[in-house]
Amino acid sequence: MEGSKATTRRILLIDDSEDLREIYYVTLSAIAGLEVLLADSGQAGLSIAQQERLDAILLDVIMPDMDGVVVFHQLKSNPATQTIPVIFITARTHAEDRQHLLSIGGKAVISKACKPQQLAMQVVDLLNEI
């Protein structure tokens, strides 16, 4: 699998905030060298995840209509998407919130309060562990 690390990694960012999608897109593609697909809702993210080959999904927890936990459970119940690692991104910083997201199967939880460059480095580190 050593050769696969040399290829560009593809991630899907699901976040309802247009501003954050733009910031994360630029940061993750320019700094981390990732191919980033974008979804503005849980439903759009589910559709993209079923159609594309992804190395991971960055999933916002708090979204209207379908929150990140609901999206996560739908991803994990679908054979086409159940093996894609999910990294939650959230504004919630309480330890119990983070622990809950990890306990249901999230690979990691990244705070939205971190600087974009830190987010990019954390995502790259996590992809190297997956």
UniProtKB/TrEMBL annotation:
Q: Which SUPFAM superfamilies match?
A: CheY-like
Pfam families to which the protein is assigned, alphabetical: Response_reg (PF00072)
Enumerate the UniProt keywords alphabetically: Phosphoprotein
- Which GO BP terms apply? phosphorelay signal transduction system
**Which segments constitute the Response regulatory domain?**
10-127
Residue positions where 4-aspartylphosphate is found in the record: D60
Q: Which PROSITE patterns match?
A: RESPONSE_REGULATORY (PS50110)
Looking up PANTHER family in the UniProt record yields: CHEY SUBFAMILY (PTHR44591:SF22), STRESS RESPONSE REGULATOR PROTEIN 1 (PTHR44591)
Supply the name of the protein: Response regulator
